[in-house]
Amino acid sequence: MSTKLDLKPEIKVRIPKPKPKQQEIIDSKAQFKIIRAGRRFGKTWYAAISDILSFLGGHRVLYGAPTIEQVGTYWRIICKALQPLVNSGLYRKNESEHYIESVKNPENRIKAKTCWNANTLRGDYADKLTLDEFQLMAEDTWNEVGLPMLLDNNGSATFIYTPPSLYASGVSRARDPRHASKMFIEAQSDTTGLWGAFHYTSFDNPTLSKEMLALAARGMSEDSYRREIMAEDDEIEQSWLVHGKFNERLCLIDRIPIPYSWPVFSGHDFGKSNPGALFVAQNPGPDEPATSTGNIIRKGDYVIFYEYLPGGGLSPSQHAQSFKEITKDRTVIRSVGGNRTGEDEVRIGYAPHGWVIVEPRISRVNAQLERVYGLYDLNKVHVFNDLKRFVDEMSNCLWELDDEGHVTDKIKNEARYHLLACWRYIGSDFTPEVSIGKRANQGNSLRRKHGRLPTSS
């Protein structure tokens, strides 16, 4: 598509033609638009096309994205389209600052910059703001800087995102990893016409090969396919998540040092191919450390601090040695693992190597989960966000649905979730009788010497 500007001499600008779904968003009269779309839908291309049109209409446009790679893609698109204006001498381009502006009216400008929080967005202003990969930005990007910059001119804003997972929260600057998802839900419920919510999948890009998309999907996890391709949000499917009660906004935290005085518990899942273990510390008080989310770890709260998934081919002796290294200089209270029936022989095999594992007090999976849910309800469980595999399992683990789409009480592909099994075993063991200060598991060393706690194996 081409646009003629009211300039002397006349200048023709060629703008990339939007795809039909992109045109739907452009045609919307909503002042605030939020777009939830799958990968390769053309989100950044849409942003560039829409912003070029606004710029040519005389607006001051600001595009923000959290990485220089995304900014670079956007910048190349607008530079190619607007180069005739720069060549005319009526507009100037600044490559280092990534902006093009009118020589006579510098208020008419289009600029791209990296931003991920309020501080990185400060220093600019606009009457058209576009925030790409918004799910990776801190909430204050919009609340503290973006919104105020539009108040004086009654400006407009567009938010673009792909549904995040708990796994992605390690690279996100957001306190609440699903803040973009929640904004989308609010926009959907708007009845004033002020907000527009748009949902598109990767299949909505007509230039992408459906066969190649289907082929790519075969190598993706179910969770990745739902988010990356179909752009489905967990906020909408919260009841499908087995561990949906976990409050990641408060309890998924940056790593802090675990004091050596804190007692430790471990959960174990047996298997020749994928054995696993999870290590949990409990705060005995009186100190209650603050976390990166503004929450505190209260006396009696638990912190999941170490995940162990070494792969197959190791003996009980080798596993036990690793457990001892992980917990050196720490008091291990209790180690729980395996099913109550059928895995006694495996448990017994660890004892000669100095690591005693006992059977869970509760045998049924759903009854174990009820105990864990009770801890979630009280926000008593904190998880370090660098435990990528454990957090990924939490975001993937779903209940099976029946033929009518109703949630059942059976975990879908339960055997895949080794670390969650470890957590069930030990989490369901946390009752009032397991109190701080009890005598440590005599089969394990009472105090194990270790210089510092490792992060994760």
Give me the secondary-structure topology.
Blueprint: E1 2-5, E2 11-14, H1 20-27, E3 32-37, H2 43-56, E4 61-65, H3 68-88, E5 91-94, E6 99-102, E7 109-114, H4 118-121, E8 128-131, H5 140-151, E9 156-161, H6 179-188, E10 195-200, H7 210-218, H8 222-229, H9 248-251, E11 252-253, E12 264-269, E13 276-282, E14 302-308, H10 316-326, E15 332-337, H11 344-348, H12 365-377, E16 381-384, H13 388-396, E17 399-401, E18 407-411, H14 418-427
Parallel strand pairs: 3-9, 3-10, 4-7, 4-8, 8-9, 11-16, 12-15, 14-16
Antiparallel strand pairs: 1-2, 5-6, 6-7, 12-13, 13-14, 17-18
Protein name: Putative terminase
Organism: viral metagenome
Please describe what this structure looks like.
The chain is built from 14 helices and 18 strands. By secondary structure, it is α/β, with parallel strands linked by helices. It is elongated, with a radius of gyration of 27 Å. The protein folds into two domains: 2-236, Rossmann fold (3-Layer(aba) Sandwich), CATH 3.40.50; 248-427, Nucleotidyltransferase, domain 5. The strands form four sheets. It has an eight-stranded mixed β-sheet, sandwiched between helices. A six-stranded mixed β-sheet has the order 11-16-14-13-12-15. A two-stranded antiparallel sheet has the order 1-2. α2 (43-56) packs parallel to α3 (68-88) and α12 (365-377) packs across α14 (418-427). The protein starts with a strand and ends in a 30-residue tail after the last helix. The model is unreliable at 166-170 and 432-457 (pLDDT under 50). This is Putative terminase.
